[in-house]
Amino acid sequence: xKKVVIEMTHNELSGGSNxxxxxxxxxLIIQSLRWWHGxxxxxxxxxxxxxxxxxxxVTDTSRSDR
Length: 66
Prior knowledge:
The protein has 1 helix and no strands. The chain is an all-alpha fold. The chain has a domain of 36 residues.
């Protein structure tokens, strides 16, 4: 089993609560993995159809953290 951690930031993100943003990102990532697997088919080196999003944490940071 592999665990992959990705940290992303956005300076001016709006569009809901942190929980809502997390749900939107989860849905987008799952759809993207499925789409790419469909495009690559048997030539999918990362087996994208097998990946799962276990958790996404969206937090507010202070300006000094950026």
